[in-house]
Amino acid sequence: MAHELFSRIADILSAPSEAQALIMHETLVIACHEGLKNTRHGFGNLSSQVESLCRQYNIAPQDIVAIQKMRRHSNSNAPILPEDVAYDCRALAIFVSAVVQEAIPSFLVGKIPAHGRITENIQIANYRYIRCIVREWNDSIIQVVVTNQDSSEELLTVDYMDTPEYVDFSYLRTLLREGMQLNLLDCTVTRKKVVPRLIVVEPDYLIDISTIANCFESYGHHPLLFIVNRLSPRTTNKHFVLGNFAGSALDDIINHSTGYDIKETFRSNFREKALDFATCPDFDAVAFKLEAERQVENMKEIVDDIFRTFDREKAILEPSFVCERLGIQGRVDLMTTDLKLLVEQKSGKNIFIERKFKNAHGSIHMEKHYVQLLLYYGILQYNFQLSPKNAHIQLMYSKYPLPDGLLEVEPLQTLIREAIRFRNQAVATEFWMAENGFQRVLPLLTPQTLNTEKQHDNFYNTYLLPPLTSTLLPLHQLNDLERAYFTRMMTFVIKEQLVGKVGAQEGVGNSSSDLWNMPLPEKKETGNIYTGLTITEKERSNSFNGYDTITLSVPQQGEDFLPNFRRGDMIYLYAYKKNEMPDVRKSILFKGSLQEIHSDSIVVHLNDGQQNPDLISGDYFAIEHAGSDIGGTSAIRSLYTFITSNEERRQLLLGQRTPRTDKTLTLSRSYHPDYDEIILKAKQAQDYFLLIGPPGTGKTSQALQFLVREQLAEKSKAQSSKSKAQSSILLLAYTNRAVDEICNMLTENELDYIRIGNEFSCDPKYSEHLLKEVIDDNATLNSIKSTLADTRIVVATTSTMNSNAALFNIKHFDLAIIDEASQILEPNIIGLLSTRHAERRAIERFVLIGDHKQLPAVVQQSDTEVVVEDETLRNIHLYSCANSLFERLILTERAAGRTDFIGTLHKQGRMHPAIADFANRKFYAKEQLECVPLAHQTEQALAYNEASEDATDDLLKAHRMIFIPSKPCRQLNISEKVNTEEARIITDLLRRLHRQLGNDFAPQKSVGVIVPYRNQIAMIRKEIEKLGIPELEEISIDTVERYQGSQRDIILYSFTIQSRYQLDFLTANTFYEDGQPIDRKLNVAITRARKQLILTGNEPTLRQNQIFAELIDYIKEKGGYYAEKA
User: Which InterPro entries match (predicted)?
Assistant: First the structure.
């Protein structure tokens, strides 16, 4: 590793100027990853990681200044200045030397300056915004390292106690920690000390404004409310349903200045939110209609009043904003594009209006609503330098007519500071829990702790305390095992969410802070941004919506660009000026979904259509991924659901109760001799059944289909005797692609179903089964409930179902079958399996289908961080939080010696025996897969009938597994994630295969190419284009992760790597079974092939790994090794 890093530094010196910054940046990222990979502190952005390692290895102060300057240069979009390159390489070499604990080698010493540059006295240029890292502090000052601008001083002194009288930072004393990132805003300089007006802690950790506001309760705003509110189950009640309607109505009123029709809002809202209406336990249709009509009349009057003063043509609905300076993000209900008007709408009660008395601020607004509006104003102030004189911020209470229905409020700076204080405390608590464990916080989660205002009046005791106690009391009634499980998993989820926000290793995984921390060239390289887009069309998806369907022309994004976007992805669309770089922090963001993706055009469906199409305008547009807290919050709620579930289900899932079986049950009919035994065992299992489905064993097309048919048949017989209720089946999978496969199976077998989910994440072939499509325009609440009750199969992704758990209020499932179970982390599924309605289980029994030897769930934390050390938990086979529930239950069953609740599909109909043999030996020694056999599995020879051109063709015809060594081909101006030699080899093989197959060549069936890096896909595509064979341009070239679940007759695999450090990435999903390594990524690559597998790679690099060496030797032994003649 050390030699490779130093060699890269030498390469920078001789690389073309346009490539130097990218190589320098990549080298710095690799060095940081190497330095932090075995620690528990590997999160934070690159500047944070650099500072942490500089401290750890006691690098000299003047060198730290140079290293941070080098980091900034490498982050720049512009080439590094020639006079800076050598000094930056010197700084990088010092950093690498410290991290790898080796001296700078002689081959590099002569190429870099012996001494650092003598720096001039450079003063900080921008005191309005200083990004820095805490080095040390005492009761009055903080010593920080500035990271966002040049300074000749290593440390800057911040005075956080000698501040203006209305600014109080004393609370920071208990929050500060070494390495903490700060934003210092609106600073002044006195006596060589910086005095900020605002300090923001860990600004890369964005918190949604509405989340902050919801923590401002009348009894206090303790930072632990941030975690308590995420524990509390999301409830669908009449207030929630009315709030959704009122929001839609406001949009429609704005979009229809004349001719607004409330019936259209009723119709569209009812269709869009059908599940909420149907599952709302206290919904009263008559009362809802009356209140909705009253609020609509109020809003029409209020809107007319607003636009007597402001320009309606500039009114924009629900724009989103990201504010890194304040560490917040949010979506405003209504504003004008000239930033003169900001309106937040609320549909609920306001006790100050109702009772006609004023609050502590001398007004009649609710404090949490005021906080929300002020933070939106803060974003405009810091993102767009908005002057307070120009801002009109208003709260709309649509329950009340004018004048109470529209309150103009002042931008109260003290309350903004209080809101940022809460945000800082909440974020610091998240970091503290991630570092020290949730178990340290659990005892503090009591109403007494949260009631900082010491309220004990009748209102508190009657309305506020009971729900708070109901939420918190179960946390203190757990037994030792339950507490250990809950706290360990909560720590894992909190840290995973933290890493998802602030990042770990740049370029590996995604974090929301990549939006501003990742340099534009790296965004391009990873395919995470489209730039230079221009709008070609703006349309309404229907006559009542605003302009919500935007078509954009896509110019050339760069030779190697490959988009990392899929249909259905949530994105930000935003404009930027011709002479500027795209930056989400400087723009009004339109949130939406990708509806169509083509090489030359993109169609975006906006979440909120706009009444004036001219509002969506600009020189150029960019598209980037939109972050969301939904995943982390739903995992926390899932864990809470589990610990508050029925005791017998908790005991079952924690291995404290033996699963039950009913051996008297028999199959209603025979389905297939290879599956009947397993289907019967699954039927007899009364709690759970684990179905291991190795590659090609028909787990979806056959096993899942038979399980569904048997459940329907069994209940149909029961229905004809005593039982009147029909059984229902819930079918879930981790990805939308897998859900599409389930839908395909159901459709082909003419089994009716409803799919819950987003229309843009669903294959159009199955969109007619989406709930909103099943409901016609004249549907009633009763007809929707009847449709949900009568449709016996419901299909969804696990994340969609977690967000729509209210379905369990009206629908009970006799069986849930979860496909791809080995890819689902425990916290993301255990709540669904434990949900109850009233005192009844929502799901009676479940079947988990998966293969723990294929790719696991994606986790951003390191192996060290996810290890479980608590013996109580290891005793229930929870060894790593990164393992799936499926894997843990398999270990539980095997340890108990039980066979009634676990089954393996052994007959595979995909791989030819010559391919399956290696996978059987190395990965499926226990399972020992057998061929069905299908016709292609008994073929002796490959159907290549054209005359051979050379020895390569002879090899192709003679062997089903082939390895072709690739020669070293590193180029300084090309990423190490690209291998030009292997791209050439793959392309030549494709040409040969196309020639041999002739008319039998089918792009989506005959051949597929697998690579580890997306960059290599672009390189291979470029080489294919040179051939001028249109059919080859249609083949699938993708990463291993995206190929899981697919198959092709012939698979070509380009290992791509040429450096030792890249082996870590390639083998990251390896685990051990009975002492033998199981490389899950290699397993998936090999087992995609039906008839032939051809691999190419840099042999010396690959042989440094045991399994790769064994694979090459195996192929060589079988005669499939390509030996180039001298």
Answer: DNA2/NAM7-like, DNA2/NAM7-like_C, DNA2/NAM7_AAA_11, Helicase_ATP-bd, P-loop_NTPase, SF1_C_Upf1
